[in-house]
Amino acid sequence: MFKFFKRMKTVVSSELNSMLDKAEDPVKMLDQFMRDMEEDIRESESAIAKQIANEKMLKRKYDDAQAMVDKRQDQAETAIEAGNDDLARRALEDKKNHEQQAEQLKASWERAKQDSENLRSKLDEMKNEYREMKLKKDTLKARAESAKTRTKMNRTMSSIGNDESKQGFERMEEKVLKYEAEAETSEDLSSESRSLDDEFNELEKSSNVDDELSDLKKKLGKE
């Protein structure tokens, strides 16, 4: 497990330096690398949890065996005080059996405890490496996104000023000028097409207004 994680770190470190030059999407690849690392850590945590459980079981059995040693010792002393040497002898014999078990269990427990401590230390190392790679991943993702944005903007800017765009604007400008010319022409034609009757009607309206104005002045004594 830990060897695999080391290999993964080596692969990631080399890939990070050359990824942007490859066809793969670097953001997706970085996320996949991190998911692989996370899976390694979860598997390691599960293995360590089992190891710790085994360590605790051995410690409990060792404590039970040692407790029996102490119990048989107390019973042997009690039997001697009661003058029952045979019972004391049997208690001491059973005490020796539990002492042997306790010694074996203690050795097993100490080995399991040491293994648990070593595994915890390696897991902490894995997590530190993961945090280091995650920081590098976040930095590279930001750089990749920035590079994509700059590329997109540069392509957009270059397309704005190309000949096709300019020609399109020139065509639209010509159309607008044409519309304006047509509007002016239609106004001139409308003015020229006015009939004599229309002009005389306007003249008559103007004369009527002048007569009304003169009558109003007379009425007000302003003439």
TrEMBL record:
InterPro entries: PspA_VIPP1. Residues 86-223 are annotated as: Disordered. The lineage of its organism: Bacteria, Bacillati, Bacillota, Bacilli, Bacillales. It holds the Pfam family PspA_IM30. This is Phage shock protein A. Belongs to the PspA/Vipp/IM30 family. Residues 86-101, 108-148, 163-181, 194-223 have a biased composition (Basic and acidic residues).
